[in-house]
Amino acid sequence: MNRHPGREEQTIHLLKSIELKKGMKALDLGAGEGETVQIMKAFGLNVQGVDLAPRSSEVQQGDFLDLQYAADSMDLCISQCAFFVSRDQKKAVSECWRVLKKGGFLLLSDLDPGNLLEIVKETGFTILCQEDQTALWREYYLEAIWNDSFCCEDHKLLQKEYKGRKIGYTMVVGRKE
């Protein structure tokens, strides 16, 4: 497994942007190998990881565009670098809205074609925090290219689809009011 040395720190930074309480029910969407699930469990959260192709026993197979969880059942949804790959960030954010309880949090860091913050706002979330993390993302991908490893297998398709467009990386923290 190729791990970016700052990935764990980025996850902790995202988690510390809100007040975590032991036992919070949380979903890690696009959980992959379950690294974030393990970090969240260390914070005392009751967390489930969901991914189309789970690569860990910590992660269940599932589609974050069609979550198999009841409405208003979660305290927290987190996703890092996954919604963009689905090609439907709006639907992914809407599914988070559906499963989150009132007062629940969306912690999202993802590739941003320029409208990610608007998608989160239009869905109804109150924005608590927003950071442009494009420089960190570029550093991560430069290392991935150097090591001949990419976080997503669809990178060539995405490169073709977004050729010539400026893509950033944004962290957004929202709350369902």
TrEMBL record:
Keywords from the UniProt entry: Methyltransferase, Transferase
BP terms from Gene Ontology: methylation
Family annotation (InterPro entries): Erg6_SMT_methyltransf, Methyltransf_11, SAM-dependent_MTases_sf
SUPFAM superfamilies referenced in this protein's UniProt entry, alphabetically: S-adenosyl-L-methionine-dependent methyltransferases
Pfam families referenced in this protein's UniProt entry, alphabetically: Methyltransf_11 (PF08241)
Domain called Methyltransferase type: residue spans: 27-107
Classification via CDD domains: AdoMet_MTases (cd02440)
UniProt-recorded Gene Ontology molecular function terms: methyltransferase activity
Gene3D superfamilies referenced in this protein's UniProt entry, alphabetically: Vaccinia Virus protein VP39
Protein name per the record: Class I SAM-dependent methyltransferase
Annotated organism of origin: Blautia wexlerae
